[in-house]
Amino acid sequence: MTGIKKGPGPDAVFAGKLANGVFEIQKCGSCGAHVFHPRVICPACGSADLEWVAPTGSGTVYARTVVRRKPERGGDYNVVLVDLDEGVRMMSRIDGIEHDKIVAGLKVNASVGEGADGEPAVVFRPEGDAQ
């Protein structure tokens, strides 16, 4: 297969960008589709012409759930599916809001924060929430 770039895989590139505080997703140079989760080939057209671009970071909650844990195990946390304005869906969490106030349709903004494992991750906050 020609056109596939050599070097670290797309997951490693994404993780490296997050480690540097940068949130980017891929965009296909052939068909213009935005792509997330990082890929080698565009799932829309099959092209290997994928570049990294900065999304607006704006999105809308598609769905959410709350994982219940005892306080001594870290307490409850939310898991959300967010549709970015670019048309891709991400799984993440929302900070700065009570779990029961997270509803489908809530407007959110992305930033690079810390994941549950202590590694850099994309996290969201309600739109208009000071960061």
| Poorly predicted regions | none
CATH architecture of the largest domain: Beta Barrel
Question: Major sheet, described briefly?
Answer: 5 strands, antiparallel
Q: Give a count of the beta strands, DSSP E runs of length 2 or more.
A: 8
Distance between the termini: 44 Å
Reading the helices and strands in chain order gives HEEEEEEEE
> Please, how many helices?
1
What would the CATH topology of the largest domain be?
Answer: OB fold (Dihydrolipoamide Acetyltransferase, E2P)
Q: Name the beta content range.
A: 35-45%
Indicate the overall shape: globular
Helix fraction, binned, reads: under 10%
**What is the domain total for the residues?**
2
Q: In order across it, which strands form the biggest sheet?
A: 6-5-4-7-8
- Using the coordinates above, name the CATH class of the largest domain: Mainly Beta
Structural class: mainly beta
Provide tags for this entry.
single chain; 131 residues; mainly beta; OB fold (Dihydrolipoamide Acetyltransferase, E2P); 2 domains; three-stranded antiparallel β-sheet; 8 strands
List the helices and strands and how they pair.
Elements: H1 10-19, E1 25-28, E2 34-35, E3 50-53, E4 58-67, E5 77-84, E6 89-92, E7 107-114, E8 120-126
Antiparallel strand pairs: 1-2, 1-3, 4-5, 4-7, 5-6, 7-8
Structure description:
- With 131 residues, this protein is mainly beta.
- It has 2 domains: 10-53, no CATH class; 58-126, OB fold (Dihydrolipoamide Acetyltransferase, E2P), CATH 2.40.50.
- The protein is built from 1 helix and 8 strands.
- The protein has one helix at 10-19; strands spanning 25-28, 34-35, 50-53, 58-67, 77-84, 89-92, 107-114, 120-126.
- The strands form 2 sheets. Strands 6-5-4-7-8 form a 5-stranded antiparallel sheet.
- The radius of gyration is 16 Å and the shape is globular.
- The N and C termini lie far apart (44 Å).
- The model has no long low-confidence stretch (mean pLDDT 93).
